[in-house]
Amino acid sequence: MDKTVKEADALGKILQTLFARLPVSIDIKGRSYPVKIVGIKDSLYLLVSIPGKPSSEKTRILFLTHNFHFFHGVFTVTGRNANNGLELLRVQAVKVSEAKRSQRRVELESSESDPIIIHNVINQQHLRKSIGFVDKSVEEIIQRHAKKIKESYADSLVYLSDRMDNRLRIMYNFEQSIFVINRHERSSGGSNFVPMEEYLKLISLNKIESRFVSEICVLIRYKNYTPLGYVQVLSEKSMDTEDYNNITLFSAAISRDVINSGFFQESKEKCIVEDISRMGLGFLHPQSIFFSRSFAVGETLLFDMQMNRELKGTFRGVIRSIVNTDRMFRVGCQFFNLNAREEQLLNQFVDSKLGPDGGKQAPGTEEKNRQPGKPEESTQAEQVSEISPPASDLVEASSGLAHSEPDGSVMEEIPNMGFDSGEST
């Protein structure tokens, strides 16, 4: 039976335990797109990075699936910043129903083509925790690169840690580097970098010497996903795009060498994929100590996947199900905030099997495709029923949820982003 939650305390729990921690999608004109939840405010507000061009929508529909339940949230837009695509949303209600698969999948078990292989699997949470216990080989890599960077930029720093400081946190939340040409002239590298207003707040908390006018700070990432640290360069003179590109290369080299050192405990199993779609996949993994420690519903995995000889990359997914079969464990994953390159590779592969745009129906759109004149037809905001279960019932589907980012990747307090006022609630 479907349930609709309207009670403030219950809604706050849903946002904290589900929307802040699991892959979330948005419904835009009947199509689903992944969104990034940047922050939470007063339990009932989400700061969300909306894909695509700015719009004047007054209502947003966000949804996710967890433990075989579909969570369909109705939000009111209370603030919008057209410059960076951020919107401040106030939750009005969340409808909870049984999850049903609505996308076609490519079944591979009986396929005549070469199998899809997953390898180098690692738990994202364990990945970040391991940075707190770096060994001598990793320290030597960091020291070697730090020395090389100082040859070009005397006032530089390589920061690698399992704990997010303010600088690392703000870059991760905005998914952008810092590029400030001259902080006294309030100029930065452009809209693709951390906003100048946020940078000025940062340095008001984390002071830098007055002689520095320019800063470039680039994330060090594990295979372009999980942040491990950053390379920071300060300068008494304005830096330019050439400097930014150089520092980006330094960051990429550090990431490559740390990964190649074998420090991260990745699964050495070569796992066979049984089925795959644009939204997720299912693969087989044998029982092992690594499996017992790393695999649980709600955990986030990073893995390399080779779909064919040409299409291969690193992907990220949240575990949705684990089933013990006669042979081994079948793990069902939902893709989570993929990089643009990997998303393109995935679409290219699915297109080759299902045809262009095959299987792109958004979850839950069947509610909007009913015949005109039916009593069930209504607007998305009106599809909320009057059932409002107590708070104790509402998180039944979210029990045992693991946090994929242990250091609070979602901020508790949202920065002032210069929002235009939206519809008042």
Secondary structure layout plus pairing:
Elements lengths: L2 E3 L2 H12 L4 E5 L2 E11 L3 E5 L9 E8 L2 E13 L4 E13 L7 E2 L9 E7 H7 L5 H17 L3 E5 L5 H9 L3 E5 L4 E2 L7 H10 L8 E9 L3 E10 L5 H20 L10 E6 L3 E6 L3 H6 L5 E7 L5 E13 L4 E7 L4 H15 L36 H4 L25 E2 L4
Antiparallel strand pairs: 1-7, 2-3, 2-5, 3-4, 4-7, 5-6, 6-7, 6-20, 8-15, 9-15, 9-17, 10-14, 11-12, 11-13, 13-14, 15-16, 16-19, 17-18, 18-19
Protein name: PilZ domain-containing protein
Pfam family, one: PilZ
InterPro entries: PilZ_domain
Quick structural gist:
GO terms for molecular function: cyclic-di-GMP binding. The chain is α+β, with helices and mostly antiparallel strands and 425 residues long. The chain has helices spanning 8-19, 124-130, 136-152, 166-174, 196-205, 241-260, 289-294, 340-354, 391-394, and strands at residues 3-5, 24-28, 31-41, 45-49, 59-66, 69-81, 86-98, 106-107, 117-123, 156-160, 178-182, 187-188, 214-222, 226-235, 271-276, 280-285, 300-306, 312-324, 329-335, 420-421.
